[in-house]
Amino acid sequence: EKIMAGAMKSRGWTFSTAALVMVFGLQGPLLWFASLPAQAGLLADHGAALGPLAIAGIAVALAGIVFETVADMQLEAFRANPAKKGQVLDTGLWRYTRHPNYFGDAVTWWGIWLVAMAAGTGGWSVLSPVFLTWTLTRWSGKPILEKSLGKSRPGYADYIARTSGFLPWPPKASA
């Protein structure tokens, strides 16, 4: 919202022009690129039986979906509890990674890529899950969120010190 508002103000754009440029002009191509493994899978010969790699890819994608869904449900329940306002969610999956929803999303796309690989059409699309994982961990996901949470949540620095940034891992002992 702030980016669109800034673009509208600095360039004299209307809301619809800003939305066209900022949402469709920027996010559209990024979404197209990130979804290349799914597009590759659509191009495959669908008459072939599922082999071990496809089954593994399906299992990986489903595990990612479950991981992200559970993380989102835990976050929603945490936010709905007024007693938790201003606190840091550090239980459930959030005890093992600061971004279980991002991790689950990345795992899902890696699984989809494995299915496309199994179909013989996904090798060229490997840059998509690489890009998505990089985006979530280094560009727009984790860095932006952690910057704002570091300012608004007392105890977040301690949470960062003891909790893995992306991959689920047992927490370190508190300092």
User: If you average the pLDDT, what whole number results?
Assistant: 87
The biggest beta sheet is recorded as: none
Cα-atom Rg, whole angstroms? 19 Å
- Count of individual helical segments: 8
The percentage helix is: 55-70%
Overall 3D shape: flat
Beta-strand percentage range = under 5%
Order of helices and strands: HHHHHHHH
Structural class: mainly alpha
Work out the number of β strands: 0
N-to-C terminal Cα separation, in Å? 38 Å
Low-pLDDT segments, ≥5 res? none
Structure commentary:
The protein is mainly alpha-helical and 175 residues long. Helices cover 66% and strands 0% of the residues. The protein has eight helices and no strands. The protein has helices spanning 2-11, 15-34, 36-42, 52-80, 100-118, 127-139, 142-152, 156-162. The longest helix is centred in the middle third of the chain and has 29 residues, at 52-80. It is flat and about 55 Å long. The mean pLDDT is 87.
What layout of secondary structure does this protein have?
Layout: H1 2-11, H2 15-34, H3 36-42, H4 52-80, H5 100-118, H6 127-139, H7 142-152, H8 156-162
Brief overview:
The chain has about 180 residues and is mainly α. Helix content is about 65%, strand content about 0%.
Key attributes of the depicted protein:
175 residues; 0% strand; 8 helices; single chain; mainly alpha; flat
